[in-house]
Amino acid sequence: MFNHAPDAKEPMIPHIPISSPLPIPDASSNSQSRSMVPSKRSALSPVKSYATTPAGTSKVAKEPPRKVQRVDSGPSKAPAPAQNSSSQVHGPPVLRINAAKSLVAIPVRQAMLKTLYETFKNLYSDLLQKSPSLASDHALAQEQEIYEQSSKLTYRNAMISSIATLKKRPKPTSLSHESVGTEGTIKKLREAYDKLRSLSITARKLDPLVMSVEVMEQWGFMIKLPDGPGGSRPHDEGKIRKCERCAKQYVVKGKDEADFCTYHWGRALMSRFNGEKLRVWTCCSQAEADSPEGCTRGPHVFYESLPEELHERHAFTWTREANKNKDSKDTALDVVCLDCEMVYTTGGSRVARVSVIDGSGGKVFDELVKMDEGVGVIDYNTRFSGITEEEYRKKAILPLKQIRQALGNFINSDTIIVGHALENDLKTLRMSTKRFDP
Prior knowledge:
Blueprint: H1 30-35, H2 106-123, H3 134-149, H4 155-167, H5 183-198, H6 203-206, H7 213-218, E1 240-242, E2 249-251, E3 260-263, E4 268-273, E5 276-281, E6 296-299, H8 307-313, E7 317-318, E8 335-345, E9 348-358, E10 363-370, E11 377-379, H9 382-385, H10 389-395, E12 398-399, H11 400-407, E13 416-418, H12 422-428, E14 431-432
Parallel strand pairs: 7-14, 8-13, 10-12
Antiparallel strand pairs: 1-2, 3-6, 4-5, 8-9, 8-11, 9-10
């Protein structure tokens, strides 16, 4: 306001402060400004617990405890890829795979896997007690096989077809049964079996390997038949013999009246323990000195190997002559593989089962042998023979004489016989081949 009067007073002008702009900080002040910004606490610095800090000791507002970074001094490990789980022994397995990498929706695959598992579980009902995870493992493997071999459109039908095929399989009684396994596994086994079947052993290949008469006699083969008709003393019941198991004298009795002994069914082999050599039984793993009597209990039995004694039990005979008549074809094979299983009887060790296969591995003959009149089985020796009393009573129909006649259809004097410990099998069959008749 302006006034020209002489007595006019100067008006009061209010003071308005004007703030000047802050100066631009130079490089030397950067370190100071950075220090004003709070930094992260070191992972190794001690962590202050706010829960235990007394009230009023700090003017800083309380905040929740900060997370501490874990420092691992060891080598870093990459995360393991997700895998399918078959640990649920009593339930269907679970697919643990990346859904983004699966061409088929995971719920669809899981539903089909559950049905597949139930089918395997029903098929393996007799095996699950020994192998509880068998159905689960094979269901997972079968589902993976089908998934890899099919597309998004064919997966479901392929699974349904596989389940229908599983339901037609015979129930397996052992883990080695042909019904055990996925389709891929069984296919590979069949291909391997067919490949082996395609191999054939012929007489021409084996002729250079046939033993001479001298070598056969050296290894205990019957080259000459004992004198006499044979079969005059089929058993020794009531007589005193030496037990093969415990080496004690005993009176031969039938199965129901037989006396028992304690013995080792294994052999004592030399082993090293703590730098010391010891003979250890293979049957019980005990040192020979610590277990002189035995680890198994069973009836007294005896064994005979002299040709004259065996001939008295059952007469030896030659294999039949080969048919030289060109008008009639001989049914005998050029090559056979022979195996026999023995049991202990009142007449010593006697043949109880005879098995024969041809040069291609095909089964030709497999029969249980009924004991001769007056001869009784004392011990079926199931651990080694595989023959049980129940099986023997049901299936042993033909005696040794008729078994020998049946073998004549496949074996003649020209047949090459292959076997393991063949000299013992031929003796227990009371058979000698005329191919080597001197």
